[in-house]
Amino acid sequence: MVQSLNTKVDLVMDGTSFLGLPNYGEIMIGDKAFEFYNDRDVNKFVQIPWEEVECVVATVVFKGKWIPRFAIQTKKNGTYQFAAKNPKQLLRAMQAYVNPKKMVRALSFFQMITRGIKGTLNKKK
What is the second-level CATH architecture of the domain 9-124? Predict the structure, then answer.
């Protein structure tokens, strides 16, 4: 069994981890770390200490009505993507441990297309 990094738990919620194939389990927000534990396989877990979190990027759709998934960028180990049953409540619980300035919205589809076109045109010049 995996030892939790947290000494106090603020929120536990059903969620999905998108590391390769989707893994279903529980997301735990605590005083020391963000943790994901798989329901079926105890060896599939993610523990991210709050000191290691660089940025939290949320995909926001329909003018903030729906957040389908969010990503946590770490300082050393890359980006981890998750989805939660109630993502707004989860992100609000994370604000206590992550600087709100480091919690950002992901680019929309049209913003990505515009940046791609501008980048292509600037390369040619």
Answer: Roll (2.30)
